[in-house]
Amino acid sequence: xxxxxxxxxxxxxxxxxxxxxxxxxxxxxxxxxxxxxxxxxxxxxxxxxxxxxxxxxxxxxxxxxxxxxxxxxxxxxxxxxxxxxxxxxxxxxxxxxxxxxxxxxxxxxxxxxxxxxxxxxxxxxxxxxxxxxxxxxxxxxxxxxxxxxxxxxxxxxxxxxxxxxxxxxxxxxxxxxxxxxxxxxxxxxxxxxxxxxxxxxxxxxxxxxxxxxxxxxxxxxxxxxxxxxxxxxxxxxxxxxxxxxxxxxxxxxxxxxxxxxxxxxxxxxxxxxxxxxxxxxxxx
Length: 284
Prior knowledge:
Layout: E1 2-3, E2 8-9, H1 15-21, H2 33-55, H3 58-82, H4 87-114, H5 119-145, E3 151-153, H6 157-170, H7 178-195, E4 200-202, H8 215-230, H9 232-269
Antiparallel strand pairs: 1-2, 3-4
Helix pairs in contact: 2-3, 2-4, 3-4, 3-6, 4-5, 4-6, 4-7, 5-7, 6-7, 6-9, 8-9
């Protein structure tokens, strides 16, 4: 068609002219402050853990990972509840998690018990950092594509960081002998392997906090707070390793159900065994 305003055919219009008429996509400036404050607090806890671990103050360093876990849970929930979630917040949270749940636990574990192993301990700590970064990258991809929100594919990085943090907090004296430090490899490498595995771990994001619950739930929560306050070392270790074991327990239950289902299906598909014909009584 003839464009009377321009005096020439539309299909002969230059590309620059067409692009000039298209609205330009403007990126939003600024960030949502409330969830970002919790993310900064999460990152600060990871940094503080590194500083105290390098000083050898392991009893002070380990709880900072626990504080970072709490802040990491809060920033996501607050962002969703207040409608302030954004792509920047997702990426910023991932960067903070790499520090708090990757670098900080690795340095804490190395200073506490991996240093007597030399290069082997150094390599084990780096494997933990690498696994945490890969786990976070995979989680971002899976969150964008959707999926079953009841489960995590692979152990979440905060829970994996809680294994060395709870262990160090329960026994903050450290190891200085090569043979004593060998079990520390399992404390670091097993959570690292679970982070990049396909084993499913239960997610608590689907818990509805706005619905009514029985009063006994408040009693159980109060009892848990009392136990953590009075016996924090033992309770936190039990919680951390129980969640680690829950992945293996769930995997065993799933395989048992699938195996039982295949057996029942095979029995249903198998034809019934034909009975031999009855012999005639006159045949003797």
